[in-house]
Amino acid sequence: MRIAVGSDHAGYELKTELARQLADAGHDVVDFGTQSADVPVDYPVYGRAVAEFVVGGDADYGVCVCGTGIGISIAANKVTGARAALAYDVTTASLARRHNDANVLCLGGRTTGLAQATDAMATFLSTAFEGGRHQRRIDEITRSETGRASEAADRPDAVGRSVLQGSHRDDQGDHRDDQGDHRDDQGERQAPTR
Ligand code: RB5
Q1: Fewer Cβ atoms within 10 Å of its own Cβ: the N or the C terminal residue of the chain?
Q2: What pLDDT was estimated at residue 77?
Q3: 46 lines ligand 1 (CB under 6 A)
Q4: What share of the chain is helix, strand, coil (3-state, %, to 5)?
Q5: All domains of the chain, ordered by start, with CATH?
Q6: Whole-prediction pTM value?
Q7: Is 99 a catalytic residue?
Q8: How far apart are the C-alpha atoms of 97 and 12, rounded to whole Å?
Q9: Residues 9, 27, 64, 66: which is the catalytic one?
């Protein structure tokens, strides 16, 4: 497979070790940097570069690393078509593929040890998407990206909204009930979200 990798300075060491493992296993590795742990850089640049490469069809998967994996996953997910998953063990890496059809694996260089990251990456790359009901959910994500109407709106699991009034308002003397505008009394309360 061809794998794109990228990290900021906080993810440099883990990214470099994972890239070496990938190459040793016979994969083609495209490294978008950064190339030092000593020079602070901004993770969105690397997350976007990896995600664009994967979504463009130039790599099978991406592996991104920052300090926590959080920032770089947020950045990668801004690329339309990217499904970047922050994983921290074999279970989350497996589910990211089986249920979410993730195409970019994100890891935390400061939060996930090398052994766990190694196992998570190996699992991610060897686990297939299960499709079925999960495909419907991926399709819904894709519709969100393209601004097309949701097809979930008419289903029983469609989103509802529930409003709970904070009881601390009593202490502040401004409880909604006292003001005669409690939402429940006006019949605006909706079914709780499932
Ligand atoms: C860099 O200090 C750190 O903020 C970054 O690597 C990452 O953890 C952000 O999500």
Answers
A1: C
A2: 98
A3: no
A4: 45, 10, 45
A5: 2-145 (3.40.1400.10)
A6: 0.84
A7: yes
A8: 24
A9: 66
